[in-house]
């Protein structure tokens, strides 16, 4: 900084605001000062306006950071969920769960139903809601999680990965049941769910009824122990209905054929 710049109040203010990591105040203070002068707003309210703008922008960036960290496969909010396609789904319960108090209470959600009925969409929507409320979230498919765990075990970093998964306030495990697990894979997945028991919330989506989960885990004992932990504090969402992905595809084909 030159000698002239060192005595220029605007340059100094910009320097200090950068050091204090207040980029929104830096970008807004001049414009807000002019507006407040025109509107006859006093200094405390001018300062309050600047601080509120900084807080709003900081919260927005924090939400974006949590959403990126969650690694959702798509951005699908509950606002775009087609509840009409699933008349038997308890919409009131879903909207209540979107308040994310179940995460605070460390309760679980299991969404069961055929492929294409919106289980993943629903899970992502609840995950996004949790991110917006300042909670740490992770999204992964069951097969992907087992692969991550197996690689981490081979590379002698399994405990580190397990610890990071256990710290998440909400872990979403999607598509359980689409791929049978090896005995080792089933045990690794069980360990993750066991470590989260009454310490964090887990959402699981599956195309299989509970009685068919043994075909995934290959052991009645392991399946029973896992279900004991998952269903102790649980909200079960029955998502039985026709695939609305298939309906949408047929509708698009019909519109193109006109």
Structural features, described:
The protein has 258 residues and is of the alpha/beta class. It has helices at 3-7, 9-19, 23-39, 43-70, 91-97, 101-104, 119-132, 142-154, 158-167, 183-196, 214-217, 220-230, 244-256, and strands at residues 108-112, 137-141, 170-176, 201-206, 234-238. Helix 8 (142-154) packs antiparallel against helix 9, helix 8 (142-154) crosses helix 10 and helix 10 packs parallel to helix 12 (220-230). The longest helix has 28 residues, at 43-70. The relative contact order is 0.13. The model has no long low-confidence stretch (mean pLDDT 89).
Annotated CATH architecture of the largest domain: 3-Layer(aba) Sandwich
Oligomer classification: single chain
Shape: elongated
- CATH topology label of the largest domain: Rossmann fold
The helix tally amounts to 13
The major sheet is characterized as: 5 strands, parallel
Q: Work out the count of structural domains.
A: 2
CATH homologous superfamily label of the largest domain: P-loop containing nucleotide triphosphate hydrolases
Unreliable parts: none
Task: Report the order of strands and helices.
Answer: HHHHHHEHEHHEHEHHEH
CATH class category name of the largest domain: Alpha Beta
- Give the tally of β-strands: 5
User: Over all CA atoms, what is the radius of gyration?
Assistant: 24 Å
Average of pLDDT: 89
Helical coverage, percent range: 55-70%
Strand order of the largest sheet: 2-3-4-1-5
Beta percentage is 5-15%
Which structural class should the secondary elements be placed in? alpha/beta
How many angstroms does the end-to-end distance come to?
Answer: 68 Å
């Amino acid at each position: 900084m030159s000698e002239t710049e060192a005595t220029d109040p605007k340059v100094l203010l910009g320097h200090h605001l950068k050091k204090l990591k207040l980029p929104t105040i830096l970008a807004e203070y001049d414009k807000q000062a002019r507006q407040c002068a025109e509107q006859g707003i006093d200094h405390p309210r001018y300062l309050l306006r600047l601080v509120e703008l900084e807080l709003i922008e900081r919260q927005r960036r924090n939400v974006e950071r949590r959403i990126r960290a969650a690694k959702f496969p798509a951005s699908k909010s509950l606002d775009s969920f087609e509840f009409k396609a699933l008349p038997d789904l308890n919409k009131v319960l879903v909207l209540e769960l979107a308040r994310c108090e179940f995460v605070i209470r460390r309760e679980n959600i299991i969404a069961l139903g055929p492929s294409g009925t919106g289980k993943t969409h629903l899970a992502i929507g609840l995950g996004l809601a949790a991110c917006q409320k300042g909670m740490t979230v992770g999204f992964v498919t069951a097969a992907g999680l087992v692969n991550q765990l197996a690689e981490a075990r081979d590379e002698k970093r399994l405990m580190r990965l397990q610890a990071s998964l256990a710290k998440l306030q909400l872990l979403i495990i999607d598509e359980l049941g689409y791929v049978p697990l090896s005995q080792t894979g089933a045990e690794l997945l069980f360990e993750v769910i066991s470590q989260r028991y009454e310490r964090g919330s887990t959402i699981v989506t599956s195309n299989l009824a509970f009685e068919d989960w043994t075909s995934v885990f290959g052991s009645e004992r392991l399946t029973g122990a896992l279900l004991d932990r998952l269903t102790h504090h649980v909200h079960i969402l029955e998502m039985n209905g026709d695939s609305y992905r298939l309906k949408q595809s047929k509708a698009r084909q019909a519109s193109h054929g006109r």
